[in-house]
Amino acid sequence: MPPQPEQHGFVAGTQLADPATRSLAGFAFVEHYRQSRCGLLSYIAVAPSFRRRGVARELFTRARDSAELSSIGTGAPLRCVFAEIHDPHLAANANDVIDPSARVRAMRRLGGLRVPIRYVQPALSDAAGASDRLRLVAFGAPGENELDAGVICDFLRECYAALG
Fold it and tell me: What is the pTM of this model?
């Protein structure tokens, strides 16, 4: 089996060290795919009471920076961070904690751009099938509005191989 991606997780909140008084504001997880030098923002969530306070931006920045440091540690900078989100046109009634259209807007605010391909997420387990109701979003370098197709291909090859 090919190398698995490195995983980095971040939690935001108040009084996190005290189980009796802590309040979880949000969390983010990013996977670093070392061969393609790409990241996958696999999860980002912010509690409703903490939204519109910059928590998502801070979590995303920390996740991206962590993947960047990991990539530089292997000898080259991070090329891109991707995210998989429900496509509102294909999954309008998706069983999700946030409306797919709202998630598209949130990703856009973080700088995510739709990757204009038909995307199929490979099966995540033997019991689950592939999903064709998702959209691939890319977070390129700051100020970039285009992404080289080779970066997308390299990431997808490594991601699919890692999932078997």
Answer: 0.89
Dihedral sign of CA atoms 128, 129, 130, 135 in order: negative
pLDDT confidence bin for 131, thresholds 50/70/90:
confident
Cα(150)–Cα(36) distance, integer angstroms = 10
Residue 98 is given by DSSP the state: S
Three-class secondary structure assignment of 52-93:
CCCHHHHHHHHHHHHHHHHHHHCCCCCCEEEEEEECCCCCCC
Q: Helix (H, G, I), strand (E, B), or coil: what is residue 160?
A: helix
Distance between CA atoms of 101 and 91, rounded to whole angstroms? Answer: 10
49, exposed or middle or buried, with CB in 10 Å at 0-12, 13-18, 19+? Answer: exposed
Looking at residues 98-111, what average pLDDT do you find? 90
